[in-house]
Design brief:
Six copies of one chain form a homohexamer. Chain A is mainly alpha-helical and 312 residues long. Chain A has twelve helices and six strands. Helix content of chain A is 50%, strand content 5%. Chains D and E meet through helix 4, helix 9, helix 10, strand 3 and helix 11 of D and helix 4, helix 9, helix 10, strand 3 and helix 11 of E.
């Protein structure tokens, strides 16, 4: 159950209206890396984690709720940046009041001009935020990644926080309003905080690589296919040991030749690895048993109740 | 700022898993008339109402927050209806465990069969909700109507509540689980409650018709164009007095002829109305002045702060 | 069956091209509250109403057809506002003819500059309308609300007309062309007319509240949850009698406490209402019987023919 | 201006309800190759053609209007195929009436089972059509191709009619209802008729190849890059004369080598063609002049009126 | 299997950055007629053609691969046109560095100003291309037409190439950079080449009209319905012989009257054609047999392997 | 420039058709975590990395090209799983051939039945893949994350590989075909390989945390807001040291109280950290300088050429 207090989590202010920046800021209201996307991602992931992983559930709901609170901060800032548009539009009988401003009154002209970056502020939302990105594209449920496995979902979240952070970093360069900068700095820094929370939570699950349960075929886990020819680069991603499995990278210099000669990789043999088909199979079975039992024990197969009153 | 308690607003329970119904219920999670759509609509409308209409703002945030709480109830119910899917999928090493159930074990087969209505529960979300409607279409920001005018927004909300109500009414016919029915009945009834709240709020704004500020041209407000020929019906929508303006409906029997003869309506004269171009112009100016001043007085044109600490 | 005459329903004219306004006007061509959305909504609703409600069917098809005619007026106006773009683009061999205009020829420059608000007019549609809103977002079938119940659909239409009206009201403030204003005024006023038609039609259905058939649980229909704390407002939406059911609003001051103490509302008892579980059940059954029989009588269960020739 | 008569263009009937086929048939109601897509495509193209090409405008509006009439036929057939669903849903108080049918009443069970292909018929539209394709994806304005040039638009239409035709051909194989087959056969055949109309109209424009105005660089118009290696095929698309320009195809056996040696095609010289940079430039200028003057003469640069009353 | 070389198929260069044109050019990167749409269309069509039509498969894969190579050229050009944006954004600590440029440094101002056409270059992509059209609408899988029949797919491709050609023709008018023009001219000309390849391939299939297998009902294939009244035009699309079937067009002057009198076309008799229901039925059967056998022979019904190593 | 060989990277085979699994497998063809999404993400990111980070560019293009090759493998497998559908549909004249199979021929019935999971295979694509996910939702350009900073993009890729891996893990449980399992195992394992490549590449950039350039405000980087009340959990995400910055987590037990008392966090002071506003500012400036110079040096501000011939 959610609850709302009218105080914002951060004391958002603006020095003066700036509709052009309001338009850019929509990117964090209804854009793919914005606050609604973050809030809905953690909220949606939380359902499948509720019964088997109550600690992760608590963390996801803490952060999801904070992201909803950030969504409110972003919306409030956009609203204040739009300034008098809503009121001006109510003056509907004055013949093209808004348009007349364009003739001779320089300051207002700039205001209108900058607002034109997003015509929907005028003709659709009447001077309020829209659930879109900075180009007017409506928010989509497909922005949400929730795959029912904490070793995957937490990584999705680490990446999502990275993207949200960089978008705020970019946005801060397009305003000189110290109040707005302050708010953006708060929001950006919170992404840095959340990033570390998700990283720490991921570390509490062991093993967490590869993500999910299955280990992967030892014949194919350490090949590097040199598929972009010319100006080839070598680095720890295609030479030396691999990061997660500690296998030795096998660099396939001429992939077309290799694929044809290996009968489409079917005859390719594992190299540079200690893992075998057998060891993988054993590990797969162990992990399957452990992970499925963990979930099955926590989720009743018959009658189910979401929570007790009061929640302990 | 939002806050979350782990207790649901309603004590959601299920008697046993039913993934087919979980799939249908997605319509109210991520569908166009679902809880996310309602929550985001009232939340988004609230921004423009904050400063000029603090009472409407309070109501919108109360109801938006309740809708977020309903979204949680719907998600929790879907999760419980999906039952053991997440756990079964973790048993990944068992050769097609889930598929083998199809041979001979009737009860499980039904389970799987019904789950197949929505393959994404298996291959994408891993046994959790998706931010989509019952057919898998992702939620869209375009579901949200927020037009910056309370006489419009409140009507959008009355209609939205009507649609949400009927979808719950339909859904209730596809489950025999008494716990689930109980939850759906709660949710459906709340839409009835919200409907009346929005209706009452609309009545406090006078005049509220026509929506917005401008009155409309008296030449065109009471014509009925009979554009679908054959089996014509007459009723209070095209004879007698009109509901809002109290004008006498003018039935245009043969619209093509009338349009041509009136030079594309340009020569059409007002009939059956007391309103004149002059009276309309006067009313337009009065309303414009009143409504724009109301907003302008409340919204500062320079520095602005969203809220005080503590909020009074 | 549809038929077209080349005369527009309204004599649309423009004083001179204005591509910036053409771009804004797209909001009513392919936007969520535009003419295509209205036409398709009433047209789609009409199918389910055809056999059980022939009078509503007639009205919906009359208005749907008028909205298609309005769509044509809007498209024609956009086309005229785009003026010479299509012809200029045909002059393709002249080295950047359009671009060269930017150097020194002030009037043309303005033209081009304003057209840049919507680059698709140049590089995609070649100087004609696109089936998008003012930001280029393609029209979506999800804009259409049709839920198979006249007490819901007519309310969706009242809201849709309200939104369409306000968008025209906003648009009129961004043109000074008297011809264009005249056309927009006609279109805006027609929304006011349609609003009243739908309202009158809704009144002919009794009872029409709650929308649909089921009455709602008397325990939950008159509670107001005070979920947004601080600066709370009271008004007819949370005190006194409710508008539709005439119950007394029950204001739940501290919803978290109340939910926990009422075992997630499960132990909550009805208050401030004469309706009981029993009376509701009775009404539900009566309404179910009446409404289902009405439809079933009109819709053949075997062979079916849409219409007779000629239609009577 | 549109007009509607209640008679369908074709006498659509069904022998009995078949909701599974109703679901498939949605492909032609709200799918990318369906009747709404066709109607909106020709209607949208018509705007830019109105003043410079009144004969093409007439044809496009004739066919667009027919496609709207087909949309109505498809919708009517879907409605009849859905049969009693709308009425059954009104019987809302009967405890899971629809679900209970599943136990023991074989015929009804089949009905319900087949309806489950599209859950939205039950929980969203209440037994009526939706503006989606057969999978529930909402219709999109991006289905419409209108590029402001008849040599392009007419080709888009020929292709659109081809796709619409094949979809009807496929659909006809999934019904055994003779009435429905008859209707589908009518609709399919009309696509064949329209195909030929567009083809004939394209022929009246000379030259119509290449589409648009510019002729294309003679160095690049007759090369065939053999970019998919192994099992290469030769045919009139890469040997002999090209269809439109009558140039001799130049087969580039080893494109990587050729690109590198020709400095990224920059040093490639024309071969197998009589066209030269000079002849192309001349033709480009002639065509530009002719085509742009044709349009500019027809489209006034100042005041403009869409049509006269009455239209001649 | 794909392979990449770092050389572009065409030596793409720019004279200087031009972010406004970069924004327009996105239309051919992620727009409905752009290179990704073309590449994915031919690639997707190729799968169904692989076994029954290996020669068409080879052609489709040759051209699809070329379109992917063009996508790379377009992306590279956009990147170079965006110039220093990515680097400037990295200078994040300098207080509004980018914004400060707006004061007094004219040249940079223009740069920024023109970049503002697409705010996502700044706040989302950080100075790189986005998978959207020129208005920011994300690329959609619905742009791809692949219907499993070469007589349909090849026509879709001819139309697609026509649209791609005209968009390049339009784009060339908005740049004066000779390097960019050169690249666009190459890309535009390649569309002209591909058009002719698809046309030639279509000709190798006989008969190829009507598209697909079924011939169409002789009663409905040559009627022209005069559904847009006033200013009617006659031409080879409604008088004389039809292009594909060589039937005589039947002009239905008054379609409403005709439809009513013919009982919804049910009593309409074939005229102006030699085809009969019988001859059509015969042709349908022959074609069905021939076409289905051709495919069935090539596609194994049991075990299947996509290719041999090495491919012959 | 891309090049294609007809051999698949992996020798894909199927034992027999299975259209139900073909439908599920679409999730990896045109779904949000599928091969097209991966290929386009790395390909799009590569543009901005080309000049400043040639080694990362090489890696991204190697992997992007492999993902395109995987897209081909997935498409080929879907095509083989669809088996004879395309051929059956060509037998169009046989009265409902496909439907008749439903009566009495058990094996074929199963085939048809399972195919019905995705009606578009029959009525749209004619027995070939569609560019959609398993529910028919078209692929969207919004699936692609490319933000112009390697410390962000590589993290997006690590998460994308995790999701792709788990979807394959899930999919493998819904087929018993050993050939198909083998192919899926290859594809799943390659995601594990790519994950490690991206991880290794990220490590070569130092510092890589926080992602981007700016360090974040020391007042807000180590607070944990306990916003979901009841059943609170403690763990390394809200106690002890944070993972990236090594600060001590500050647990805010009662966030509402804290926010109000700290004047909306404006008066909140840093605790548990050595970082100061000053040290952050210094680091921000250093990093800004270093990172922007790195990029600016590599990207010419005037004339630019994408590559040399031959590429070194």
């Amino acid at each position: 159950m959610f609850y709302h207090v009218k105080e914002l989590q951060f004391n958002a202010r603006v020095s003066k209206p700036d509709p052009a920046f309001a338009s850019m800021l929509l990117e964090q209201f209804g854009g793919p890396n914005g606050e609604l996307a973050a809030a809905m991602q953690y909220f949606t992931q939380a359902f499948a984690m509720r019964q088997p992983h109550p600690d992760k559930y608590d963390m996801l709901m803490d952060i999801a709720t904070e992201e909803f609170s950030h969504l409110e901060i972003v919306g409030a800032t956009i609203q204040m940046l739009l300034g008098p548009i809503n009121g001006e539009l109510k003056n509907a009988a004055e013949e093209a009041e808004i348009m007349q401003l364009l003739d001779g009154k320089a300051k207002k002209e700039d205001f209108i001009h900058s607002a034109m970056m997003n015509p929907q502020f005028f003709v659709l939302s009447g001077g309020g935020p829209t659930v879109t990105n900075s180009q007017g594209v409506p928010w989509s449920g497909s922005y949400v990644n929730a795959n029912g496995d904490p070793t995957v979902d937490l990584r999705s979240n680490i990446a999502a926080e990275s993207r949200a952070k960089i978008v705020y970093e970019y946005l801060m360069q397009f305003t000189t309003d110290p109040y707005v900068k302050e708010t953006l700095s708060f929001l950006m820094t919170r992404e840095v905080a959340h990033f570390q929370m998700f990283e720490a939570a991921l570390e509490t699950i062991q093993p967490n690589f590869p993500p999910g349960v299955l280990q992967g075929d030892p014949r194919f886990s350490n090949n590097y296919f040199n598929l972009s020819n010319g100006a080839d680069a070598r680095g720890p991603w295609n030479e030396g040991k691999s990061t997660g499995l500690g296998e030795t990278w096998q660099y396939i210099e001429d992939p077309i030749k290799h694929v044809i000669e290996s009968n489409g990789m079917a005859d390719h043999q594992p190299q540079g690895t200690d893992r075998t088909m057998k060891s993988v199979e054993k590990k797969d079975k162990e992990m399957s048993k452990e992970r499925s039992q963990h979930v099955k024990k926590a989720v009743p197969s018959g009658e189910n109740q979401w929570c007790e009153y009061p929640q302990k």
